[in-house]
Amino acid sequence: MACLAWNVRGLGNKDTVRALRNLCFKYKTDIVFLSETKQKKGYLEKIRTKFKMDNAFYVDPVGIAGGLALWWKSDVKLSVLYHDNNTIDSIISINGEDDWYGTFIYAPPYEREKQEFWERIGSLRSDINTKWCIMGDTNTVTSPNKKYRGLPFDHNNVKWYHEFLERSLLVEIQSKGGEFTWSNQRSEEEEICEKLDRVLSSLEWGFLFPKAIVVVDIAIASDHAPIILLANGLLKKTKKDFKFESRWILENECSEIVKQEWKPTEQRSHKGTFESTFAELELNSGSESRNFW
C-alpha cells in the first residue's frame, strides 16, 4: 500500500500536474491526498480520471485559498467520517485487510488557530487503543534540528502539537530521503528549510504495518516536498538469476579466472563478483563477435 500526501500549493499549474502524475506512477499509489489545491471539484475530477483513480472526496477552497482532495483506487475501501477545511477523516481497508482510521490534514499556519486544530483532531478518536494514522502538512517545526535558518526555534509554537501526541499516544513514522519538506525557495544565502510534512501513527497501527516507512521525494512545482507512506516498507529490487554461457569455456582465461574466484576470500589475488569476472572475460576476448551479454 502506498499513500501520497502533498501540499501542492495550487493544482492549476501544468508542471504540478505532470509532477503528480509521475509520483503516482513511480510509487503505484493507492491513496492520494492533496492540500491547498486552490481548485474546485470540476477541475480536479478531470485530473483524477486521467490518473485512473477510481474514487474521490473534495473540500472546495475558500475563495482562492485552501482546498483538499482525496483520491483512492477501487481495491481500497474508504469511507469519509468527518471533514472540514483542514481535515478529511476516514476509515480504510485495503484488499479486505483490517480496518484502520486514516486522517489527512492540512494544519493551519497561524499560531492562534493551532490549539483549536489539534484539540479537534484529538477529539476524533475517543479510544487511544485503535489503529490510527495521520498524514499531511502539520505546519509545525517540532524541534530545533527540524529547521535550517529563519527565526529561532520557539518551544511555545509546538506546545499544542506535543500535547496532542501525548494524549493520543501517537509517534512519527521514520522517514527516508530529504531532511526537510518545505523551503522558501530563495537563493542559497537566504534559503530557509523546515520539516513540516509527516506521518503519525498509533502503536496498534504500527503492529498492523510493522515495516512502514515514509519517503520524502523531491519538491517540484511546489515549495513542499511530497511524502509517500509505504505501509509494507521499501520495495526490494529483485536480482536477476545468474546464467552461465557454455561458450565462455572457449576463452583461454576462463579456467584460471574461475579457479581464482573460487579460492577462499583471504587467498584471492583478484576480488570481484561473477558479473565482474565474466565482464572481464568479455573485455579480454578482443572479439566483437563474442558478445556474452
TrEMBL record:
**Superkingdom of the source?**
Eukaryota
Entry-linked InterPro entries? Endo/exonu/phosph_ase_sf, Endo/exonuclease/phosphatase
Q: Where is the Endonuclease/exonuclease/phosphatase domain?
A: 5-224
Query: What is the protein name for this chain?
Result: Endonuclease/exonuclease/phosphatase domain-containing protein
